[in-house]
User: Fold this.
Amino acid sequence: MPTFIILASWTQDGIKNVKESPAWLDAAKKGFKAFGGELKEFYMVMGQYDMVVVGEAPNAEAISKIALAIGQSGAVRTETLRAFTEDEYRTVVAELP
Assistant:
């Protein structure tokens, strides 16, 4: 299953209600499962982003639904990246002309 990384930043509303964020994380885990995926790892980070989520989803359509569902809370803004494992990377590079 493809791996995706979601970079998230608190909105003004999200940071005001940050104590509720563990419940939001639980909801995100359920959202991943609802669309056939799995939230594999979560990190609170320092820097440009506030959180990093590593998850798997069946395809780009599913991860788009997951990211949109997370964004509906109004607590975070997200940026989603498709991540390639080392094996996938090696396959891509090996297939170059």
Observations:
- Residues 3-94 form a domain with the Alpha-Beta Plaits fold (CATH 3.30.70.920).
- The two ends are 26 Å apart (CA to CA).
- The longest helix spans residues 21-34.
